[in-house]
């Protein structure tokens, strides 16, 4: 069973997932990165450009999903270096540090809360996050064109692209596409008709929405939403 709650880290989400049995799971692109705990290991999930199919690794999972753009400062690694990847945290940080942090999380009664404490401690050392990154996300998530977003932030197109690669793992056009997909799926899951969903989220038409869902999620829209 999957359960999530808002984290004390602004914009982040803490979650747990205890599979009821073997099987695959489909994780869709959302512009985010996660710090993961599974079977006594700490891992990092990088930003996805397409659906990640989990083959059902054993044991329970816990994670902290960072708000888009937060994780690279925490990890000290640009997001594009982890695009479409799942890696052990020990590949990015000193193994000795990772062993110490892993022991802390393993000792916590609630693994998700243990992860959250690790992240909050690191965040306190880093200070305030770059406010421009949240403004980029907010603008693109509101459907603002990439060019207009760059102008409003006082950035050139190349500057915006470079900052987006480092913070989100891909350029602003891809980030906008991923965020639009998530907005559309939220409406469709709430029962909004597909044609209306497409119109409200900036797709040219329902066919455009269907193509984007198939390309990013790897399944037809109806199948993804359980045959709706």
From TrEMBL:
The protein's name in its UniProt record: Helix-turn-helix domain-containing protein
Coiled coil: none
Keyword rRNA-binding assigned: no
Keyword DNA-binding part of the UniProt annotation: yes
Span of domain HTH araC/xylS-type: 130-227
InterPro entries named in the record: AraC_XylS_family_regulators, DUF6597, HTH_AraC
Pfam (any one): HTH_18
GO MF assignments: DNA-binding transcription factor activity; sequence-specific DNA binding
Keywords linked to the UniProt accession: DNA-binding, Transcription, Transcription regulation
